[in-house]
Every structure is written in structure tokens, then in C-alpha cells.
Design a protein that fits this description.
This protein is about 50% helix and about 20% strand. The protein has about 475 residues and is of the alpha+beta class. The strands form five sheets. The protein has a five-stranded mixed β-sheet, with helices on one face. Strands 1-8-7 form a three-stranded antiparallel β-sheet, with no helix packed on it. The protein is rod-shaped.
Length: about 475
């Protein structure tokens, strides 16, 4: 048991390696078939069929074999004398030899004894090279004429009484000898004809005749006739593989591309969400520090305003914290209703108004019906921070900031407009990372259906507009 297990494992491993090699070769061949065009495949198939038709006539699929055949003459029948040599050329036929011989009298002729007396009685029996003839001389004496019959290879002739039987017996013996001679001549003629036919057939195969009566002939052996059928089956199988394997490869390529795209999109989304989570976690630290410093200063100078500013800060933090938890927990798209976004913007603007006093005026114009609209988180806050930091704060006299939401051509548009210095004109101009993050998130969430546009405000300053498909969270919930 233990001695056979290693052998079985070795065979199993060899079979697995062989199967893997065959499968690998098949995939390579199928991939090559798919890579070529049908026109090229047809030309290669025709070439393969031509080669398969030529190969059977070439070595090693075809070779010549020389055989030596002994030409043994046929043995004569038992009891017969050796045949006499035929006169004349061997190719002369019996009919031609008979026709060339001069006419002669019959070898045996039996007549009635009284035939010379002028009586029309009796029979004539003639035997020559043309055969045996028996003729009657008188119709009146037909009943009394002799009859000839053949039985068991012997010739019996009956004559009337008074005929010399001894003379007839001698005549019959001579006739028998003549018949045997004619038979031998016929056999020799048939043998000569067979030799002539064999020589004619041997000339086609280029036989070589030796001095000992042996014949050498060369014949071709071919065993590659199956190559044509094999090539045809190969072409048909290759056509089927080319037609079916192409769809499989295309499906695999599409699946790989889809998986790759999904993975890339997922990575991009994770990167963007991580950036937004970091932004939410920061909640503009310098803004918080400045706000706390302002509260500390107002406590001594204006406790009422300090208390108001503190309340707005608490409202801002209360609105920001759930957003950070939801975004870090879900990480999908961070979309929520517009009302919650405005719940963060309003206290933020109020804190800024306390800090900037008369230099900042704000306006939030959002219809009540749009408060349940879906809108990505932290985007409005990013636009407001940019407008304050790079537009209104650097301007000595300050300015006005407005946040508006409306439906335009079936889509939700939220715009943040300021009357500050203008886009990119302030000394505190940023790197544009915030706007780039917004565009990336819009692309991941909505594709080409959403956009961010930054333009100059006709009243001075900058106006940034976010356009997204209009979706009501209340309708989706119901």
C-alpha cells in the first residue's frame, strides 16, 4: 500500500502538469485565433488544406518498395504429355495462327463402305483444327446412320453392321490424339496471351526481369491520406473556437475593465471622502480659535454680544458633529437634505457678523419647498468659507454675502455670491484644493449631471454655483 501510493501520486502530478500544459497551449492558440482577422484565417485554412493534400506524396508519408516476383509457369494436367512449343512469335493469337495456316484435308474422315458406289447413305465425321463435324449424307437413311456422343470424357461412335470396327477404332485413336494436341495448343496460346498481358502490365510499373525468370517491380506505399480529413476537421474546430472564444475574451476584458473602473472609482471616492472628513474634523481650526478669542474679549467689553456669539458657536458645533459622524460612518456620498446644510451655514454667518460687525451683511434665500432636497454635505460651507476668507475679509469695507437656492431646468442650483475683491485677486488667494474636491465629489456622485461654476459677480466679487439633479429625500423615503 505504501509502495503504490508514491507511484500514484507521481502519476497524478504528471497528469496535472500535462493537463495544465495542454490547457495553456489551448488558451494561447485560441487567443492567437481571436487576434487574427477572418480573412487571414481563411487564407491560412486554404494553405493548410493545400499542404495536407501535398504531404501524402512526400516522405515520410510515401515511399517506394521494390518486390521480386518469381514467374512460375502453370503445370500441365496429370497424365498429359508436355505441350509442344508454339510456332511463331509468342504474341500471336490462336485465331491468327489458325488463319495463317494453309487449308488442309480433315485429319480423320469416316465414310460408309458403299459411299464410293454412289449411294447417299452413311455419315461423315471430320476432326481438324476447327473442331469435329458430323454430317449426314442421306435423309432416307438418317435412322440407320451412326450417332456420336460424349460421356465421361470418351467418344463413342456407333456404326451399322458390316463396318470394319478395327479401322474405326484406329481412326478414333488418331482423332483422340488430334483433339489432345488441339487442346494443348489452345492452352499454350492462352498462356502466351497471359504472359503478354502480364508483361504489358509490368511495363507500367517498370518491372525488372532477371535472368532466372524473376520479375522485380516497384510499388508506392502511402499512409498519409488521412491528413486531408484531419486538416478539414482542424479548420472547422478552429473556426468554432475563434467564434466562441472571442466572446469569452471580450466578456472577460469587459469584466476586468469594469472591476478596474469600479476599484478606481471606489479609491477616488474614499480619497475624496477622507479629505472631506478631514475638513469636517478641522472645522476651520483658526476660525474656532478666532471665535473663542472674540468671545473672551467680548466677555469683558460686551457680555451680551459674547453670550450671543457663544450660542451661535454651540449651534454650529451641534450641527457639525452629526455630519462628521454620518460621513465617517457611511463614507458613501455624504448627501443629506438642504435644511441640515443651512443649519450649519446660518450660525457660521452669525459668528462672522459678530466678528466683522458692520463690514459683513448676509442673506439666505431658500424656498421652504427646497429644504427637503438632497444636497452633498460640506459643499456650501466650503464656498462660504472661500467667499469670506478670500473675498470679503481682505476688503477693508467688507461686503455682502448671499446664499440662494432655486430650481432651474429641473435641477437644483445653489449659489454663493459675494461682493469682495473677486476670484484670485486677494493676497490670501488659496490653492484651489477646496474647489477641486467639490468637483471630484460631484463627478463621483452624479457624473456629468452635476457641475460647479465659478464666475465674476455682476455686482462685484465672485459667484460660485453648484448644480445637481433635484431629488427630494421625503419622496424617496415614502
Amino acid at each position: 500500500m505504501n509502495s503504490t501510493d508514491p507511484a500514484n501520486r507521481a502519476w497524478a502530478e504528471r497528469w496535472e502538469r500535462f493537463s495544465a500544459l495542454v490547457l495553456q497551449a489551448f488558451h494561447r492558440y485560441a487567443s492567437w485565433l481571436v487576434s487574427i482577422s477572418w480573412k487571414r484565417f481563411g487564407l491560412l485554412s486554404v494553405a493548410l488544406m493545400i499542404v495536407a493534400a501535398i504531404l501524402p506524396s512526400l516522405p515520410p508519408f510515401s515511399w517506394s518498395v521494390t518486390e521480386t516476383i518469381e514467374d512460375t509457369p502453370a503445370k500441365p494436367p496429370r497424365g498429359s504429355k508436355p505441350p509442344k512449343a508454339a510456332k511463331g512469335p509468342r504474341s500471336e493469337s490462336p485465331a491468327a495462327s489458325a488463319a495463317s495456316r494453309p487449308a488442309r484435308e480433315p485429319v480423320i474422315k469416316i465414310e460408309h463402305p458403299d459411299a464410293g458406289a454412289g449411294k447417299a447413305e452413311g455419315i461423315d465425321i471430320s476432326i481438324d483444327e476447327r473442331g469435329i463435324r458430323i454430317s449426314s449424307r442421306s435423309k432416307a437413311a438418317a435412322a440407320s446412320e451412326p450417332a456420336a456422343s460424349s460421356a465421361e470424357g470418351e467418344l463413342h461412335i456407333k456404326l451399322r453392321a458390316g463396318v470394319d470396327k478395327e479401322a474405326v477404332r484406329e481412326a478414333v485413336q488418331e482423332a483422340r490424339q488430334a483433339i489432345l494436341e488441339a487442346i494443348r495448343e489452345q492452352k499454350q496460346a492462352a498462356r502466351d496471351a497471359a504472359d503478354a498481358a502480364r508483361e504489358a502490365a509490368a511495363e507500367a510499373d517498370a518491372p525488372i526481369s532477371g535472368p532466372t525468370g524473376k520479375i522485380k517491380r516497384t510499388r508506392k506505399i502511402r499512409w498519409g491520406d488521412f491528413l486531408t480529413d484531419l486538416a478539414l476537421l482542424w479548420v472547422l474546430a478552429s473556426a468554432i473556437v475563434k467564434a466562441t472564444y472571442k466572446g469569452r475574451i471580450q466578456a472577460e476584458v469587459k469584466a476586468a475593465q469594469a472591476a478596474e473602473t469600479a476599484e478606481a472609482e471606489s479609491l477616488k471616492r474614499q480619497v475624496v471622502e477622507a479629505r472631506m472628513a478631514a475638513m469636517q474634523a478641522q472645522v476651520e481650526p483658526h476660525f474656532l480659535f478666532n471665535t473663542l478669542a472674540s468671545i473672551d474679549h467680548l466677555i469683558e467689553t460686551d457680555p451680551a454680544r459674547a453670550s450671543q456669539m457663544q450660542k451661535h458657536l454651540i449651534a454650529l458645533l451641534r450641527a457639525s458633529m452629526p455630519t462628521m459622524r454620518e460621513t465617517s460612518g457611511s463614507g458613501a456620498n455624504g448627501a443629506r437634505d438642504l435644511a441640515r446644510e443651512l443649519a450649519m451655514i446660518r450660525p457660521y454667518l452669525e459668528i462672522l457678523k459678530v466678528r466683522m460687525e458692520e463690514r459683513l451683511s448676509t442673506e439666505v434665500v431658500v424656498p421652504e419647498g427646497l429644504l427637503s432636497a438632497e444636497f452633498p454635505s460640506m459643499m456650501i460651507q466650503t464656498l462660504v468659507e472661500n467667499a469670506i476668507k478670500h473675498g470679503l475679509e481682505p476688503k477693508p469695507e467688507g461686503g455682502h454675502l448671499s446664499v440662494k437656492a432655486e430650481i432651474v431646468h429641473g435641477k437644483l442650483q445653489v449659489s454663493v455670491a459675494d461682493t469682495g475683491l473677486g476670484f484670485g485677486r486677494a493676497a490670501t488667494a488659496g490653492t484651489g484644493v477646496g474647489l477641486a474636491n467639490i468637483r471630484e465629489r460631484l463627478q463621483l456622485l452624479y457624473g456629468a449631471k452635476a457641475s460647479l461654476a465659478v464666475a465674476e459677480n455682476p455686482a462685484g466679487g465672485t459667484i460660485a454655483t453648484i448644480t445637481v439633479p433635484y431629488r427630494s429625500l421625503d419622496e424617496q423615503a415614502t
